[in-house]
Every structure is written in C-alpha cells, then in structure tokens.
Amino acid sequence: MSVAESCLQRNAWICPEYVRTRQDLLLDALGNHVYVTVAAVALGFVVAMPLALLARRSRLLEGLVVGAATILYTIPSLALFILLLGVTGLSQTTVIIGLAIYSLAILLRNILTGLQEVPADAVDAADGMGLTPLRRLWSVELPLAVPTIVAGIRIATVSTVALATVGSLIGYGALGNFIFQGLSSSFRAEVLTATVLVVALALVLDGLLLLAQKLLTPWSRGRAAA
Fold first, then answer.
1. CB atoms within 10 A of CB 100
2. How far apart are CA 197 and CA 189, in angstroms?
3. Which of 35, 161, 190, 220 is most buried (most C-beta within 10 Å)?
4. Residue 8, Cβ density class (10 Å: 0-12 exposed, 13-18 middle, ≥19 buried)
5. In this structure, is the dihedral angle defined by the CA atoms of residues 126, 131, 137 and 140, taken in order, positive or negative?
6. This prediction's pTM
7. What's the pLDDT tens digit per position in 32-68?
8. pLDDT digit string (tens) for 168-199?
9. Radius of gyration of the chain measured on its C-alpha atoms
10. Which of 132, 107, 98 lies closest to 49, judged by CA?
C-alpha cells in the first residue's frame, strides 16, 4: 500500500491522491464557481449603479433605496432561494440572482459613498468648463470615485465567493457541493480541498481587482510615491 493510496483509507485531511483522482471534477467546479461569482457581482453592479445615481438625488431617495437593499440583504439565503424558485426554477440562475441581491447592498453603499466623496471643487470646475451632467459623471466623478467603488466590488466579490457555496442547498453550489458532501459523509480530504480552493479563489480575485484599481487610477500611484 503506497502512502498516496493510504491517505484515502486513513481519511486524511491532506490527500494528494484525492486531488489527483478528482482533478477534473474539482477544476470543473472551480470554473463554475468563478462563473457564478463574476455573473452575480456583475449583475449586482449593473443594478446598483443606476440605483446609486437615483439615490443621490435626495436624502429621501437615498434612504428608500439603501433601506430596501439592506432589507433584501437580511433575508436568509435558503428563504431567498425558495422565493426565487417560483420565478427561475431549480437552476443556477436562481443562485446567481440570489447572490446578486446580496451583493447589491454592498455595491450600492460604496458607489454612493464614492460619488458623494468627490471634491466639490472638482465638480465646480467641471461645471465651469461647461460639461453636461452625463459628461461630468463620466469624466470627473466616476474616475475620482473609482477607489471606493472598486473597494466595494472587492468586498462583494470575496463575500460572493463564500456565499456561492450555499447554493449547494439547491444543488448548485459549485465547490460548495464538495464541501457539504464531504461534511455529510465525513470525507475530510473533500472538505479541506474544496475549502482551500474557495479561499484561494477569493484571494486571487481580490488581487486581480486590486491590480485593476491601480491600473484605472495611475494618478494615485504617483501621489503615493510622492
């Protein structure tokens, strides 16, 4: 009996043989996890941006929009998935929409904060140059708000990577399926391997978003160096 083979028999936490024999399944689940995460955060952002632009028009609208997003965020995942089942059915789409709803509150708050923190003199200068509100938003406000907005995307992404595992409750949890299957059968290598992949994915996506932020805000690097 080899050491590699014995780790399965011993139900070891760290088992290279488990990874070798199931690498195709693990890679497929990892790719699926990436897809669900990116799709959910992208959908959340597409919804959050116009809501943030609407909410900043007045304190009343801000309270209503942010309050509604916060209420949705407090709904337990299982209850939210069950509510969505009547519309989207038992599918991966249910998980993506549910995760997008959870990311909405995080993204909405950060987009609002980023836009509200744009210096007033920058806005006045843009108005003085005759920029239309849309051109001012695109050329001045959004670029200055990028660090705060990307910070929100990073938080939402890491949170979504973790929450995506809960999709296993309806059979669409990607890596979460391995975690919950391993827990139910006390299969240690399955639990640990899938968990490590989830953590690694969160770190990689967070690093990529941080790099994107630096590329999008070259002026901030020059300020930091000074």
1. 22
2. 12
3. 161
4. middle
5. negative
6. 0.87
7. 999 999 999 999 999 999 999 998 888 888 899 999 9
8. 888 888 898 999 998 888 888 899 999 999 99
9. 22
10. 107
